[in-house]
Design brief:
Helices cover 40% and strands 15% of the residues. The strands form four sheets. The protein has a seven-stranded mixed sheet with strand order 2-10-9-8-5-3-4, with helices on both faces. Strand 6 and strand 7 form a beta hairpin. It starts with 7 loop residues before the first strand and ends with a helix.
């Protein structure tokens, strides 16, 4: 018997896209070597500067966020340089993998997934090695929901000849992060998170300090060449063919973000995150992150419940798409996003689907209590 089913995207990437942004992709294509496109490109850059909290140029790359991570490495470092990576999950580890691929001597602070890392520990680590050229960190570790003291790290590194390179992909716009005020030297973002656009664009900005490193960098680069991007941006264009439709969609999405206001958008994400965690607490479930943020909530699968089956029920029976945990912890926990174009009722839907799925699997709790706990907090966002 046929029934009505809707799909609900509550994952930390891709995230839902506003209807007005989706509609931009249906417009006739324009050429990228025209004044019309140049105007759009510069408008997008100014909007990105607003979210990044910077006066520096923000470059658009036709790639996923990993492309911007690679661009951060190859434009600032040389082979055999020594760097320090704060590795608290899948994407902290990605910094390590990229650096080692380019024969950079990589020292790791390897944390248990979800573990915090205060700036005093970073101070101690740096005191053991005077050759470090860059510290790689993550604003919001998308694999665990953990956030780190990026502002504190910046205060520590400000007076040192050490670059502060930050993956802000899932955190930018969802929580405070001001590139210039926080002494971040390279900051990256991605379109499919709070920027409310489909996957395919990444963003990168360099501080004046970082630009001095780009002039000395000897690592191979062609497509991800920041000097070429800088020269092209001076002509209000890109060095290679850009993702035109995505950029036009990003222009519209940035209009939405500006209309809401960054401070209000961050507060909205905070409310959703606290509501989600309040609901999870009523299920007596454990959070993965010691210091969870506004982008997503990672939750331990309860004992006796098959984590992969739980995801399967939520996805295929209830059409609510949350994210699972990534290797090497596959099936051990799940991730509920409260990121980007999500409203209060997206949290209610996610928690309701989680309740029904766990109940079907024999997990015992009081039905409806998670929703009640979440609603008490969601009233703040009215």
């Amino acid at each position: 018997m046929m029934t009505i089913k809707k799909k609900y995207l509550v994952s930390p990437g891709p995230t839902p896209v506003p209807e007005s942004v989706l509609a931009e992709a249906a417009r006739p294509l324009i050429h990228h070597r025209t004044p019309e496109f140049s105007d759009a490109l510069m408008e997008v850059m100014r909007g990105l500067q607003y979210v990044f909290g910077t006066k520096n140029n923000v470059f658009l790359l036709t790639s996923s966020g990993t492309g911007a991570m690679e661009a951060a490495v190859v434009n600032t470092l040389c082979a055999r340089d020594e760097v320090l990576v704060i590795n608290g999950g899948k994407f902290g580890n990605r910094w390590t993998e990229i650096c080692r691929e380019y024969h950079i001597t990589t020292h790791e602070v390897t944390l248990q997934w979800g573990q915090d890392y205060p700036k005093e520990k970073l101070r101690q680590e740096l005191s053991l090695n005077s050759n470090i050229k860059a510290v790689f960190s993550t604003l919001s570790e998308t694999s665990t929901g953990a956030v780190y003291d990026i502002k504190g790290y910046g205060e520590l590194l400000k007076q040192k000849e050490i670059l502060h390179i930050v993956d802000g992909i899932s955190g930018l716009g969802a929580m405070p992060c001001q590139m210039d005020d926080w002494n971040i030297d390279v900051l990256i973002g991605g379109s499919q998170k709070v920027f409310m656009v489909p996957p395919g664009l990444s963003y990168i900005a360099f501080s004046p300090k970082a630009w001095t490193f780009t002039q000395k960098s000897s690592l191979p680069k062609y497509y991800f060449n920041a000097q070429k991007a800088q020269q092209s941006l001076g002509k209000k264009t890109t060095p290679y063919s850009p993702a035109i439709s995505l950029i036009l969609q990003q222009r519209k999405a940035l209009e939405v973000i500006r209309e809401i206001g960054l401070e209000k958008l961050i507060k909205h994400h905070s409310v959703l995150g606290r509501a989600c965690r309040a609901g999870v607490k009523e299920l007596s479930l454990k959070l993965i992150a010691e210091n969870p943020g506004n982008a997503l909530t990672a939750v331990q699968v309860p004992s006796g419940i098959n984590g992969l089956k739980l995801l399967d029920i939520m996805h295929h029976k209830h059409n609510v798409y949350i994210a699972g945990s990534q290797a090497p912890h596959k099936g051990e926990f799940f991730r509920i996003s409260h990121l980007g174009y999500m409203s209060r009722f997206d949290m209610i839907i996610a928690l309701s689907a989680l309740e029904m799925s766990l109940s079907e699997m024999g997990y015992e709790f009081e039905l409806g209590e998670p929703i009640k706990a979440a609603e008490k907090i969601l009233k703040e966002d009215l």
